[in-house]
Protein backbone atom coordinates (compact mmCIF):
# COMPACT_ATOMS: atom_id res chain seq x y z
CA UNK A 1 0.00 0.00 0.00
CA UNK A 2 2.82 2.34 0.93
CA UNK A 3 4.25 2.84 -2.56
CA UNK A 4 0.89 2.88 -4.33
CA UNK A 5 -1.16 5.96 -5.02
CA UNK A 6 -4.71 5.93 -3.69
CA UNK A 7 -7.54 6.11 -6.19
CA UNK A 8 -11.08 6.49 -4.90
CA UNK A 9 -13.95 6.23 -7.37
CA UNK A 10 -17.69 6.25 -6.68
CA UNK A 11 -21.00 5.64 -8.43
CA UNK A 12 -24.15 7.47 -7.35
CA UNK A 13 -25.94 5.55 -4.63
CA UNK A 14 -29.12 4.40 -6.33
CA UNK A 15 -32.63 4.95 -5.00
CA UNK A 16 -34.30 1.83 -3.80
CA UNK A 17 -37.59 2.62 -5.49
CA UNK A 18 -37.32 0.03 -8.24
CA UNK A 19 -35.01 -2.69 -9.49
CA UNK A 20 -31.75 -1.64 -11.15
CA UNK A 21 -31.96 -1.24 -14.93
CA UNK A 22 -29.64 -0.74 -17.91
CA UNK A 23 -28.98 2.91 -16.98
CA UNK A 24 -27.99 2.14 -13.41
CA UNK A 25 -25.83 -0.70 -14.63
CA UNK A 26 -24.21 1.54 -17.25
CA UNK A 27 -22.82 3.95 -14.66
CA UNK A 28 -21.69 1.11 -12.42
CA UNK A 29 -19.84 -0.71 -15.22
CA UNK A 30 -18.26 2.59 -16.27
CA UNK A 31 -16.74 2.89 -12.80
CA UNK A 32 -15.80 -0.76 -12.70
CA UNK A 33 -13.75 -0.47 -15.89
CA UNK A 34 -11.90 2.50 -14.42
CA UNK A 35 -11.34 0.73 -11.10
CA UNK A 36 -9.91 -2.33 -12.88
CA UNK A 37 -7.75 -0.19 -15.14
CA UNK A 38 -6.35 1.73 -12.16
CA UNK A 39 -5.65 -1.44 -10.17
CA UNK A 40 -3.78 -2.81 -13.18
CA UNK A 41 -1.87 0.47 -13.35
CA UNK A 42 -0.57 0.17 -9.80
CA UNK A 43 -3.09 2.29 -7.88
CA UNK A 44 -4.52 1.35 -4.52
CA UNK A 45 -8.17 1.52 -5.54
CA UNK A 46 -11.29 1.93 -3.49
CA UNK A 47 -14.42 1.53 -5.59
CA UNK A 48 -17.64 2.42 -3.83
CA UNK A 49 -21.26 1.91 -4.78
CA UNK A 50 -24.43 1.53 -2.76
CA UNK A 51 -28.07 2.37 -2.17
CA UNK A 52 -29.89 5.58 -1.25
CA UNK A 53 -32.58 4.39 1.13
CA UNK A 54 -34.17 7.43 2.75
CA UNK A 55 -36.61 10.05 1.47
CA UNK A 56 -40.21 10.26 0.38
CA UNK A 57 -39.70 8.37 -2.85
CA UNK A 58 -38.41 5.24 -1.12
CA UNK A 59 -41.03 5.54 1.63
CA UNK A 60 -43.69 5.70 -1.09
CA UNK A 61 -42.28 2.63 -2.88
CA UNK A 62 -42.36 0.71 0.41
CA UNK A 63 -45.96 1.78 1.02
CA UNK A 64 -46.96 0.71 -2.48
CA UNK A 65 -45.57 -2.73 -1.71
CA UNK A 66 -47.27 -2.91 1.68
CA UNK A 67 -43.97 -2.90 3.56
CA UNK A 68 -42.17 -0.83 6.15
CA UNK A 69 -39.40 1.26 4.56
CA UNK A 70 -36.56 -0.67 6.19
CA UNK A 71 -38.12 -3.99 5.31
CA UNK A 72 -38.55 -2.81 1.71
CA UNK A 73 -34.92 -1.65 1.45
CA UNK A 74 -33.68 -4.94 2.90
CA UNK A 75 -35.71 -6.81 0.31
CA UNK A 76 -34.22 -4.76 -2.54
CA UNK A 77 -30.55 -4.88 -1.53
CA UNK A 78 -29.99 -8.40 -2.95
CA UNK A 79 -31.32 -7.28 -6.36
CA UNK A 80 -28.56 -4.69 -6.61
CA UNK A 81 -25.84 -6.83 -5.07
CA UNK A 82 -26.70 -9.84 -7.25
CA UNK A 83 -26.79 -7.82 -10.45
CA UNK A 84 -23.40 -6.28 -9.66
CA UNK A 85 -21.98 -9.74 -9.06
CA UNK A 86 -23.40 -11.00 -12.36
CA UNK A 87 -21.93 -8.01 -14.20
CA UNK A 88 -18.48 -8.60 -12.64
CA UNK A 89 -18.55 -5.36 -10.68
CA UNK A 90 -15.46 -5.27 -8.47
CA UNK A 91 -16.64 -2.78 -5.85
CA UNK A 92 -14.69 -2.79 -2.58
CA UNK A 93 -17.58 -1.46 -0.54
CA UNK A 94 -21.36 -1.24 -0.75
CA UNK A 95 -22.91 1.45 1.41
CA UNK A 96 -26.54 1.70 2.47
CA UNK A 97 -27.67 4.98 3.95
CA UNK A 98 -29.62 3.20 6.70
CA UNK A 99 -26.41 1.66 8.08
CA UNK A 100 -25.19 2.85 11.49
CA UNK A 101 -21.98 4.28 9.96
CA UNK A 102 -24.05 6.62 7.77
CA UNK A 103 -26.35 7.68 10.62
CA UNK A 104 -23.28 8.48 12.72
CA UNK A 105 -21.62 10.43 9.92
CA UNK A 106 -24.73 12.46 9.07
CA UNK A 107 -25.30 13.38 12.71
CA UNK A 108 -21.65 14.38 12.99
CA UNK A 109 -22.11 16.52 9.89
CA UNK A 110 -25.08 18.32 11.48
CA UNK A 111 -22.92 19.30 14.46
CA UNK A 112 -20.15 20.58 12.17
CA UNK A 113 -22.69 22.50 10.08
CA UNK A 114 -24.10 24.10 13.20
CA UNK A 115 -20.61 25.19 14.27
CA UNK A 116 -19.83 26.46 10.78
CA UNK A 117 -22.41 29.26 10.93
CA UNK A 118 -23.88 28.19 7.57
CA UNK A 119 -27.00 26.69 9.12
CA UNK A 120 -30.16 28.45 10.28
CA UNK A 121 -33.70 27.54 11.17
CA UNK A 122 -36.59 28.89 9.13
CA UNK A 123 -39.62 27.65 7.33
CA UNK A 124 -39.92 26.38 3.80
CA UNK A 125 -42.87 27.26 1.66
CA UNK A 126 -42.55 26.08 -1.89
CA UNK A 127 -42.56 23.17 -4.29
CA UNK A 128 -41.10 19.70 -4.07
CA UNK A 129 -40.73 16.97 -6.67
CA UNK A 130 -40.82 13.57 -4.97
CA UNK A 131 -39.51 11.50 -7.93
CA UNK A 132 -36.50 13.83 -8.15
CA UNK A 133 -36.34 14.60 -4.41
CA UNK A 134 -35.76 18.22 -5.40
CA UNK A 135 -37.05 21.63 -4.29
CA UNK A 136 -38.23 24.16 -6.86
CA UNK A 137 -38.83 27.87 -6.47
CA UNK A 138 -42.03 29.65 -7.46
CA UNK A 139 -40.25 31.22 -10.44
CA UNK A 140 -38.92 27.90 -11.75
CA UNK A 141 -42.38 26.36 -11.40
CA UNK A 142 -44.38 29.11 -13.03
CA UNK A 143 -41.99 29.22 -15.99
CA UNK A 144 -42.43 25.51 -16.49
CA UNK A 145 -46.21 25.84 -16.19
CA UNK A 146 -46.23 28.35 -19.01
CA UNK A 147 -44.20 25.97 -21.12
CA UNK A 148 -46.44 23.03 -20.33
CA UNK A 149 -49.73 24.93 -20.57
CA UNK A 150 -51.03 23.20 -17.48
CA UNK A 151 -53.97 24.41 -15.54
CA UNK A 152 -54.32 23.93 -11.84
CA UNK A 153 -51.53 21.41 -11.44
CA UNK A 154 -47.93 22.47 -11.08
CA UNK A 155 -45.43 20.30 -12.85
CA UNK A 156 -41.76 19.60 -12.22
CA UNK A 157 -39.60 21.70 -14.57
CA UNK A 158 -37.17 18.77 -14.85
CA UNK A 159 -39.26 15.62 -15.16
CA UNK A 160 -42.73 17.04 -15.85
CA UNK A 161 -44.44 15.11 -13.07
CA UNK A 162 -46.82 16.79 -10.58
CA UNK A 163 -45.21 18.73 -7.74
CA UNK A 164 -46.08 18.72 -4.06
CA UNK A 165 -46.65 21.93 -2.15
CA UNK A 166 -44.49 21.86 0.99
CA UNK A 167 -44.91 24.20 3.97
CA UNK A 168 -42.84 23.17 6.96
CA UNK A 169 -40.32 24.24 9.55
CA UNK A 170 -36.87 23.52 8.19
CA UNK A 171 -33.16 24.02 8.67
CA UNK A 172 -31.48 25.84 5.81
CA UNK A 173 -27.95 25.54 4.50
CA UNK A 174 -26.63 28.94 3.37
CA UNK A 175 -25.84 27.83 -0.15
CA UNK A 176 -26.17 31.41 -1.38
CA UNK A 177 -22.97 32.31 0.50
CA UNK A 178 -20.90 30.03 -1.76
CA UNK A 179 -21.52 31.55 -5.17
CA UNK A 180 -18.15 33.31 -5.45
CA UNK A 181 -16.20 30.40 -4.02
CA UNK A 182 -17.86 27.98 -6.43
CA UNK A 183 -17.17 30.19 -9.43
CA UNK A 184 -13.55 30.44 -8.30
CA UNK A 185 -13.40 26.65 -8.04
CA UNK A 186 -14.61 26.24 -11.64
CA UNK A 187 -12.19 28.92 -12.80
CA UNK A 188 -9.18 27.39 -11.08
CA UNK A 189 -10.06 23.75 -11.75
CA UNK A 190 -11.61 23.64 -15.19
CA UNK A 191 -11.45 19.84 -15.15
CA UNK A 192 -13.47 19.59 -11.93
CA UNK A 193 -16.53 18.87 -14.09
CA UNK A 194 -16.04 16.50 -17.01
CA UNK A 195 -16.62 16.32 -19.92
CA UNK A 196 -15.92 20.06 -20.25
CA UNK A 197 -19.18 20.96 -22.00
CA UNK A 198 -21.03 20.08 -18.79
CA UNK A 199 -19.06 22.75 -16.96
CA UNK A 200 -20.93 25.50 -18.83
CA UNK A 201 -24.26 24.28 -17.52
CA UNK A 202 -22.98 24.23 -13.96
CA UNK A 203 -21.27 27.62 -14.20
CA UNK A 204 -24.25 29.42 -15.68
CA UNK A 205 -26.55 27.98 -13.04
CA UNK A 206 -24.31 29.34 -10.28
CA UNK A 207 -23.90 32.68 -12.06
CA UNK A 208 -27.69 32.99 -12.03
CA UNK A 209 -27.59 33.16 -8.21
CA UNK A 210 -28.05 30.49 -5.55
CA UNK A 211 -30.89 30.09 -3.08
CA UNK A 212 -30.37 28.73 0.41
CA UNK A 213 -31.26 25.07 0.58
CA UNK A 214 -33.78 23.46 2.89
CA UNK A 215 -31.90 20.52 4.41
CA UNK A 216 -34.37 19.08 6.90
CA UNK A 217 -37.97 17.89 6.74
CA UNK A 218 -40.62 17.87 9.43
CA UNK A 219 -43.65 16.66 7.51
CA UNK A 220 -42.48 13.06 7.25
CA UNK A 221 -39.92 10.96 9.11
CA UNK A 222 -38.15 8.40 6.90
CA UNK A 223 -34.70 9.86 7.33
CA UNK A 224 -31.84 10.47 9.74
CA UNK A 225 -32.83 12.57 12.74
CA UNK A 226 -31.18 15.93 13.30
CA UNK A 227 -29.27 15.29 16.56
CA UNK A 228 -30.11 18.60 18.22
CA UNK A 229 -33.72 18.83 17.04
CA UNK A 230 -35.30 15.43 16.72
CA UNK A 231 -38.52 16.41 15.04
CA UNK A 232 -36.44 17.15 11.94
CA UNK A 233 -35.13 14.47 9.60
CA UNK A 234 -32.31 15.08 7.14
CA UNK A 235 -33.20 16.03 3.55
CA UNK A 236 -32.36 12.96 1.51
CA UNK A 237 -29.67 14.61 -0.65
CA UNK A 238 -27.89 16.12 2.37
CA UNK A 239 -27.74 12.57 3.70
CA UNK A 240 -26.93 10.82 0.40
CA UNK A 241 -24.03 13.02 -0.72
CA UNK A 242 -22.21 12.37 2.52
CA UNK A 243 -22.06 8.63 1.78
CA UNK A 244 -18.86 9.21 -0.18
CA UNK A 245 -17.05 10.41 2.94
CA UNK A 246 -18.74 8.04 5.37
CA UNK A 247 -17.33 5.12 3.44
CA UNK A 248 -13.79 6.35 4.05
CA UNK A 249 -14.17 7.04 7.75
CA UNK A 250 -15.84 10.46 8.12
CA UNK A 251 -17.56 10.91 11.48
CA UNK A 252 -16.44 7.49 12.74
CA UNK A 253 -14.57 6.80 15.98
CA UNK A 254 -10.94 5.88 16.41
CA UNK A 255 -7.56 6.54 14.85
CA UNK A 256 -8.05 4.00 12.07
CA UNK A 257 -11.03 5.87 10.68
CA UNK A 258 -9.12 9.15 10.85
CA UNK A 259 -6.15 7.59 9.05
CA UNK A 260 -8.41 6.13 6.38
CA UNK A 261 -10.07 9.48 5.82
CA UNK A 262 -6.74 11.26 5.55
CA UNK A 263 -5.49 8.65 3.08
CA UNK A 264 -8.61 8.29 0.91
CA UNK A 265 -10.22 11.70 0.89
CA UNK A 266 -10.69 13.56 -1.41
CA UNK A 267 -12.13 11.16 -3.98
CA UNK A 268 -10.53 11.19 -7.41
CA UNK A 269 -13.80 10.60 -9.30
CA UNK A 270 -17.49 10.85 -8.59
CA UNK A 271 -19.14 9.37 -11.68
CA UNK A 272 -22.79 10.42 -12.05
CA UNK A 273 -25.49 10.83 -14.69
CA UNK A 274 -26.10 14.30 -16.10
CA UNK A 275 -29.40 14.45 -14.16
CA UNK A 276 -27.63 14.88 -10.84
CA UNK A 277 -24.78 17.13 -11.82
CA UNK A 278 -26.03 20.16 -9.83
CA UNK A 279 -26.08 18.17 -6.62
CA UNK A 280 -22.53 16.99 -7.17
CA UNK A 281 -20.98 20.12 -8.65
CA UNK A 282 -22.76 22.81 -6.63
CA UNK A 283 -24.33 21.56 -3.41
CA UNK A 284 -21.71 18.93 -2.52
CA UNK A 285 -18.65 21.17 -2.94
CA UNK A 286 -20.43 23.93 -0.98
CA UNK A 287 -21.16 21.49 1.85
CA UNK A 288 -17.51 20.46 1.89
CA UNK A 289 -16.36 24.08 1.87
CA UNK A 290 -18.65 24.80 4.83
CA UNK A 291 -17.09 22.06 6.96
CA UNK A 292 -13.55 22.79 5.72
CA UNK A 293 -13.08 19.46 3.90
CA UNK A 294 -11.16 18.91 0.67
CA UNK A 295 -13.12 18.78 -2.59
CA UNK A 296 -13.30 15.79 -4.91
CA UNK A 297 -10.91 16.03 -7.84
CA UNK A 298 -13.39 15.31 -10.62
CA UNK A 299 -17.09 14.83 -11.20
CA UNK A 300 -17.66 12.96 -14.43
CA UNK A 301 -21.19 13.22 -15.83
CA UNK A 302 -22.35 10.70 -18.38
CA UNK A 303 -25.38 11.06 -20.64
CA UNK A 304 -28.54 8.99 -20.78
CA UNK A 305 -29.14 5.75 -22.58
CA UNK A 306 -31.83 6.43 -25.13
CA UNK A 307 -33.98 4.05 -27.08
CA UNK A 308 -35.50 4.68 -30.47
CA UNK A 309 -39.21 5.21 -30.50
CA UNK A 310 -40.34 3.18 -33.51
CA UNK A 311 -43.34 5.44 -34.11
CA UNK A 312 -41.63 8.81 -34.03
CA UNK A 313 -38.21 7.57 -35.11
CA UNK A 314 -36.73 9.74 -32.35
CA UNK A 315 -34.57 8.74 -29.41
CA UNK A 316 -36.09 8.99 -25.93
CA UNK A 317 -34.68 8.45 -22.45
CA UNK A 318 -34.92 4.90 -21.27
CA UNK A 319 -37.10 4.83 -18.19
CA UNK A 320 -39.63 2.65 -16.50
CA UNK A 321 -42.45 5.18 -16.74
CA UNK A 322 -42.17 5.26 -20.55
CA UNK A 323 -42.26 1.48 -20.60
CA UNK A 324 -39.15 1.37 -22.76
CA UNK A 325 -36.63 0.14 -20.18
CA UNK A 326 -34.58 -2.88 -21.18
CA UNK A 327 -33.79 -5.31 -18.39
CA UNK A 328 -30.07 -6.12 -18.02
CA UNK A 329 -30.85 -9.82 -18.25
CA UNK A 330 -32.19 -9.40 -21.81
CA UNK A 331 -28.84 -8.06 -22.94
CA UNK A 332 -26.90 -10.64 -20.95
CA UNK A 333 -28.95 -13.40 -22.60
CA UNK A 334 -28.00 -12.06 -26.00
CA UNK A 335 -24.38 -10.94 -25.63
CA UNK A 336 -23.17 -12.68 -22.48
CA UNK A 337 -21.85 -10.58 -19.61
CA UNK A 338 -18.58 -9.67 -21.28
CA UNK A 339 -20.22 -8.79 -24.59
CA UNK A 340 -22.65 -6.63 -22.64
CA UNK A 341 -19.83 -4.79 -20.86
CA UNK A 342 -17.88 -4.36 -24.08
CA UNK A 343 -20.83 -2.94 -26.01
CA UNK A 344 -21.87 -0.36 -23.43
CA UNK A 345 -18.36 0.73 -22.63
CA UNK A 346 -16.94 0.98 -26.11
CA UNK A 347 -19.83 1.93 -28.34
CA UNK A 348 -21.70 4.40 -26.16
CA UNK A 349 -19.82 7.71 -25.99
CA UNK A 350 -19.60 8.65 -22.34
CA UNK A 351 -20.88 12.15 -21.82
CA UNK A 352 -23.43 12.40 -24.60
CA UNK A 353 -26.86 10.80 -24.69
CA UNK A 354 -26.67 7.63 -26.72
CA UNK A 355 -29.20 5.65 -28.66
CA UNK A 356 -28.91 1.94 -28.12
CA UNK A 357 -30.56 -0.85 -30.05
CA UNK A 358 -30.37 -4.61 -30.27
CA UNK A 359 -29.39 -4.30 -33.93
CA UNK A 360 -26.41 -2.18 -33.05
CA UNK A 361 -25.46 -4.54 -30.21
CA UNK A 362 -25.44 -7.44 -32.64
CA UNK A 363 -23.36 -5.49 -35.15
CA UNK A 364 -20.71 -4.49 -32.61
CA UNK A 365 -20.57 -7.93 -31.03
CA UNK A 366 -20.18 -9.72 -34.35
CA UNK A 367 -17.73 -7.25 -35.86
CA UNK A 368 -15.43 -6.60 -32.90
CA UNK A 369 -15.74 -9.66 -30.71
CA UNK A 370 -16.76 -12.63 -32.88
CA UNK A 371 -15.02 -11.72 -36.15
CA UNK A 372 -12.04 -9.73 -34.92
CA UNK A 373 -10.87 -10.45 -31.38
CA UNK A 374 -12.36 -13.92 -30.90
CA UNK A 375 -11.36 -15.03 -34.37
CA UNK A 376 -7.80 -13.75 -33.98
CA UNK A 377 -7.37 -15.68 -30.75
CA UNK A 378 -8.83 -18.92 -32.03
CA UNK A 379 -6.94 -18.91 -35.34
CA UNK A 380 -3.61 -18.02 -33.75
CA UNK A 381 -3.82 -20.43 -30.84
CA UNK A 382 -5.00 -23.15 -33.17
CA UNK A 383 -2.02 -22.62 -35.51
CA UNK A 384 0.40 -22.55 -32.61
CA UNK A 385 -0.95 -25.85 -31.30
CA UNK A 386 -0.99 -27.40 -34.76
CA UNK A 387 2.46 -26.36 -35.95
CA UNK A 388 4.30 -26.49 -32.62
CA UNK A 389 3.15 -29.71 -31.10
CA UNK A 390 0.46 -28.34 -28.78
CA UNK A 391 2.70 -25.57 -27.52
CA UNK A 392 3.68 -21.97 -28.05
CA UNK A 393 6.94 -21.81 -30.04
CA UNK A 394 10.29 -21.87 -28.25
CA UNK A 395 11.60 -18.34 -28.38
CA UNK A 396 14.91 -17.55 -30.06
CA UNK A 397 17.38 -15.11 -28.56
CA UNK A 398 16.66 -11.59 -29.77
CA UNK A 399 13.16 -12.38 -31.10
CA UNK A 400 11.68 -9.31 -29.48
CA UNK A 401 13.90 -6.87 -31.32
CA UNK A 402 13.11 -8.21 -34.80
CA UNK A 403 11.22 -5.73 -36.89
CA UNK A 404 7.70 -6.68 -37.96
CA UNK A 405 4.42 -4.84 -38.64
CA UNK A 406 2.77 -5.90 -35.39
CA UNK A 407 5.65 -4.79 -33.25
CA UNK A 408 5.38 -1.39 -34.94
CA UNK A 409 1.66 -1.05 -34.11
CA UNK A 410 2.28 -2.24 -30.54
CA UNK A 411 5.00 0.34 -29.93
CA UNK A 412 3.85 2.72 -27.20
CA UNK A 413 0.36 1.20 -27.22
CA UNK A 414 -0.06 1.23 -23.44
CA UNK A 415 0.70 4.96 -23.28
CA UNK A 416 -1.74 5.79 -26.08
CA UNK A 417 -4.42 3.69 -24.43
CA UNK A 418 -3.73 5.24 -21.01
CA UNK A 419 -4.17 8.77 -22.35
CA UNK A 420 -7.80 7.91 -23.08
CA UNK A 421 -8.49 5.59 -20.16
CA UNK A 422 -7.30 8.24 -17.71
CA UNK A 423 -10.08 10.52 -18.96
CA UNK A 424 -12.72 7.78 -19.12
CA UNK A 425 -12.66 7.97 -22.91
CA UNK A 426 -13.26 4.28 -23.42
CA UNK A 427 -14.36 4.47 -27.06
CA UNK A 428 -11.02 5.96 -28.06
CA UNK A 429 -9.08 3.57 -25.80
CA UNK A 430 -10.84 0.63 -27.47
CA UNK A 431 -9.89 2.01 -30.89
CA UNK A 432 -6.23 1.90 -29.88
CA UNK A 433 -6.51 -1.78 -28.97
CA UNK A 434 -8.60 -2.70 -31.99
CA UNK A 435 -5.92 -1.23 -34.23
CA UNK A 436 -3.59 -3.99 -33.06
CA UNK A 437 -6.33 -6.64 -33.28
CA UNK A 438 -7.11 -5.64 -36.88
CA UNK A 439 -3.42 -5.41 -37.78
CA UNK A 440 -2.92 -8.94 -36.46
CA UNK A 441 -5.84 -10.29 -38.49
CA UNK A 442 -4.44 -8.63 -41.62
CA UNK A 443 -1.01 -10.00 -40.81
CA UNK A 444 -2.45 -13.52 -40.87
CA UNK A 445 -3.91 -12.90 -44.32
CA UNK A 446 -0.71 -11.26 -45.59
CA UNK A 447 1.70 -13.88 -44.28
CA UNK A 448 -0.55 -16.94 -44.90
CA UNK A 449 1.08 -19.14 -42.24
CA UNK A 450 -0.77 -22.23 -43.55
CA UNK A 451 1.23 -21.93 -46.80
CA UNK A 452 4.49 -21.19 -44.98
CA UNK A 453 3.95 -24.32 -42.85
CA UNK A 454 4.04 -26.52 -45.93
CA UNK A 455 7.66 -25.65 -46.65
CA UNK A 456 10.13 -27.03 -44.07
CA UNK A 457 12.74 -24.55 -45.32
CA UNK A 458 10.56 -21.71 -43.98
CA UNK A 459 10.29 -23.06 -40.41
CA UNK A 460 12.01 -19.99 -38.96
CA UNK A 461 9.59 -17.71 -40.77
CA UNK A 462 6.59 -19.68 -39.47
CA UNK A 463 7.88 -19.41 -35.94
CA UNK A 464 8.27 -15.64 -36.26
CA UNK A 465 4.73 -15.25 -37.55
CA UNK A 466 3.15 -17.25 -34.73
CA UNK A 467 5.28 -15.58 -32.08
CA UNK A 468 4.31 -12.13 -33.34
CA UNK A 469 0.65 -13.09 -33.28
CA UNK A 470 0.80 -14.55 -29.79
CA UNK A 471 2.68 -11.54 -28.48
CA UNK A 472 0.05 -9.21 -29.97
CA UNK A 473 -2.73 -11.29 -28.44
CA UNK A 474 -1.02 -11.22 -25.05
CA UNK A 475 -0.84 -7.42 -25.16
CA UNK A 476 -4.43 -7.01 -26.34
CA UNK A 477 -5.66 -9.35 -23.61
CA UNK A 478 -4.10 -7.06 -21.02
CA UNK A 479 -5.56 -3.92 -22.54
CA UNK A 480 -9.04 -5.43 -22.89
CA UNK A 481 -9.05 -6.86 -19.35
CA UNK A 482 -10.77 -3.86 -17.68
CA UNK A 483 -13.67 -4.31 -20.13
CA UNK A 484 -13.77 -8.11 -20.28
CA UNK A 485 -11.81 -9.51 -17.34
CA UNK A 486 -12.90 -13.15 -17.65
CA UNK A 487 -12.16 -13.38 -21.36
CA UNK A 488 -8.73 -11.82 -20.98
CA UNK A 489 -7.83 -14.16 -18.14
CA UNK A 490 -9.05 -17.10 -20.22
CA UNK A 491 -6.94 -16.04 -23.23
CA UNK A 492 -3.80 -15.71 -21.11
CA UNK A 493 -4.47 -19.09 -19.49
CA UNK A 494 -4.91 -20.77 -22.86
CA UNK A 495 -1.36 -19.60 -23.61
CA UNK A 496 -0.13 -20.80 -20.16
CA UNK A 497 0.35 -17.20 -19.07
CA UNK A 498 -2.10 -17.33 -16.16
CA UNK A 499 0.46 -15.76 -13.84
CA UNK A 500 0.08 -12.50 -15.79
CA UNK A 501 -3.63 -12.19 -14.96
CA UNK A 502 -4.27 -9.30 -12.58
CA UNK A 503 -1.04 -7.52 -13.27
CA UNK A 504 -0.50 -4.30 -11.41
CA UNK A 505 1.96 -2.91 -13.95
CA UNK A 506 -0.02 -2.69 -17.15
CA UNK A 507 2.54 -0.54 -18.96
CA UNK A 508 5.33 -3.05 -18.34
CA UNK A 509 3.07 -6.00 -19.22
CA UNK A 510 2.31 -4.37 -22.58
CA UNK A 511 5.95 -3.93 -23.59
CA UNK A 512 6.70 -6.00 -26.68
CA UNK A 513 8.94 -8.95 -25.74
CA UNK A 514 7.35 -10.38 -22.55
CA UNK A 515 5.95 -13.54 -24.14
CA UNK A 516 7.06 -16.87 -22.64
CA UNK A 517 7.34 -19.66 -25.20
CA UNK A 518 7.44 -23.45 -25.29
CA UNK A 519 4.34 -23.72 -23.08
CA UNK A 520 1.14 -25.71 -23.63
CA UNK A 521 -1.47 -23.89 -25.70
CA UNK A 522 -5.15 -24.71 -26.08
CA UNK A 523 -7.49 -23.34 -28.71
CA UNK A 524 -10.56 -23.92 -26.55
CA UNK A 525 -14.16 -23.08 -27.41
CA UNK A 526 -15.04 -19.95 -29.37
CA UNK A 527 -14.80 -16.97 -27.00
CA UNK A 528 -17.60 -15.13 -28.78
CA UNK A 529 -19.82 -17.36 -30.91
CA UNK A 530 -21.29 -15.36 -33.76
CA UNK A 531 -24.84 -14.12 -33.25
CA UNK A 532 -27.18 -15.25 -35.95
CA UNK A 533 -30.09 -12.86 -35.64
CA UNK A 534 -30.91 -9.75 -33.63
CA UNK A 535 -33.42 -10.09 -30.83
CA UNK A 536 -36.21 -7.56 -31.22
O1 LIG B 1 -30.31 10.07 -8.40
N1 LIG B 1 -29.19 6.30 -18.81
O2 LIG B 1 -30.47 7.86 -7.75
P1 LIG B 1 -31.11 7.17 -9.03
C1 LIG B 1 -28.01 6.34 -18.14
N2 LIG B 1 -30.08 8.50 -5.25
N3 LIG B 1 -27.91 6.38 -16.80
C2 LIG B 1 -29.04 6.35 -16.10
C3 LIG B 1 -30.32 6.29 -16.73
C4 LIG B 1 -30.36 6.26 -18.16
N4 LIG B 1 -31.48 6.17 -18.89
N5 LIG B 1 -31.24 6.28 -15.76
C5 LIG B 1 -30.54 6.32 -14.56
C6 LIG B 1 -30.22 9.18 -7.56
N6 LIG B 1 -29.22 6.36 -14.77
C7 LIG B 1 -29.69 9.50 -6.18
C8 LIG B 1 -28.18 9.64 -6.24
S1 LIG B 1 -25.79 10.09 -5.13
C9 LIG B 1 -25.23 10.80 -3.74
C10 LIG B 1 -27.52 10.01 -4.94
C11 LIG B 1 -28.12 6.39 -13.76
O3 LIG B 1 -31.50 5.79 -8.62
C12 LIG B 1 -27.34 7.71 -13.83
O4 LIG B 1 -26.03 7.50 -13.38
O5 LIG B 1 -32.15 8.04 -9.62
C13 LIG B 1 -28.10 8.57 -12.83
O6 LIG B 1 -27.35 9.67 -12.36
C14 LIG B 1 -28.37 7.56 -11.75
O7 LIG B 1 -28.67 6.33 -12.45
C15 LIG B 1 -29.54 8.01 -10.90
O8 LIG B 1 -29.89 7.02 -10.02
Outline the structure in words.
A hairpin with a 2-residue loop joins β10 and β11. The chain has 20 helices and 16 strands. It is elongated and about 90 Å long. With 536 residues, the chain is of the alpha/beta class. α2 (56-64) crosses α3 (69-86) and α16 (426-447) packs antiparallel against α18 (459-480). The strands form four sheets. The protein has a six-stranded parallel β-sheet with strand order 3-2-1-12-13-7, sandwiched between helices. It has a four-stranded antiparallel β-sheet with strand order 5-4-6-8. Strands 9-11-10 form a three-stranded antiparallel β-sheet. The model has no long low-confidence stretch (mean pLDDT 94). The structure holds ligand ME8. Ligand ME8 binds at residues 12-15, 23-24, 26-27, 52, 240-241, 243, 272-273, 275-276, 304-305, 317-318.
- What strand line-up does the widest sheet have? 3-2-1-12-13-7
What is the distance, rounded to the nearest whole angstrom, between the alpha carbons of the first and last residues? Answer: 48 Å
Helical run tally? 20
What is the helical fraction, as a range of percent? 40-55%
Q: Output the structural class.
A: alpha/beta
> pLDDT under 50 segments (min length 5)?
none
Shape estimate: elongated
**Major beta sheet summary:** 6 strands, parallel
Ligand list:
ligand ME8
Average pLDDT reading = 94
Number of strands: 16
Strand content: 15-25%
Rg, please? Answer: 27 Å
Supply the key terms.
16 strands, single chain, alpha/beta, six-stranded parallel sheet, 20 helices, elongated, four-stranded antiparallel sheet, binds ligand ME8, 536 residues
Amino acid sequence: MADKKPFFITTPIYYVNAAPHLGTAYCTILCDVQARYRRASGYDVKFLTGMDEHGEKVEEAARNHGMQPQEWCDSQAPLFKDLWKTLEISNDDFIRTTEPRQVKAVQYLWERMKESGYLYKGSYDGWYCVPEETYFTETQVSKSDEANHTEGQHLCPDCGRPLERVQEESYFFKLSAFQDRLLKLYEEHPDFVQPDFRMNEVRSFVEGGLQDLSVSRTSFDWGIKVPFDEKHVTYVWFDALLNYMTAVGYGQDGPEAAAELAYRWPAQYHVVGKDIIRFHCIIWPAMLMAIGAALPEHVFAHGFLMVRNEQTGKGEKMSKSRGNAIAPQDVIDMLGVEGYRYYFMTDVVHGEDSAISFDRMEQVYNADLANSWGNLVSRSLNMSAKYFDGKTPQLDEGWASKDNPLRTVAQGIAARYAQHMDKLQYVQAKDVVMELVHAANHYIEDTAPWAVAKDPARAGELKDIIVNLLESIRICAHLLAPFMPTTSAEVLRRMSLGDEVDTCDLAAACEWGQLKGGLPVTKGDALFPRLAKAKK
